[in-house]
Amino acid sequence: MDKTYVKVYMRAEALLQPLLVIAFLLALMPPASLLAQERATIVGTVADSTGAVVPNVKVTVTNDATGVTRILVTNSSGNYSCAAAPYWAILGARRVPGL
Q1: What is the pLDDT of residues 12-27, one digit of tens each?
Q2: E strand spans, the chain
Q3: For the chain, which has fewer Cβ within 10 Å, the N-terminal or C-terminal residue?
Q4: Cα–Cα distance between 4 and 44 in angstroms, integer?
Q5: Is 29 helix (H, G, I), strand (E, B) or coil?
């Protein structure tokens, strides 16, 4: 066997081995979307101190980290829902005048 051929083959094998290891490790990693879920659906009912539901209440969902606020209004049953809210959101509620 030619010595030049052996040297080239050994060099190619030495370069290929780390790439195969990296490809194998990457194949074992789950997709990033499965690692961290940063969104949730917030649902609830607004009730007064006697337990009666309160319709037409303004509910705010605020992300303290970014300052982004979503404003919701409860329905006639006092229910509200906020889809795709950040899990660290802060809730607040107050009666909306005129509703």
Answers
A1: 677 777 788 888 877 7
A2: 39-45, 57-62, 69-73, 79-86, 90-95
A3: N
A4: 75
A5: coil
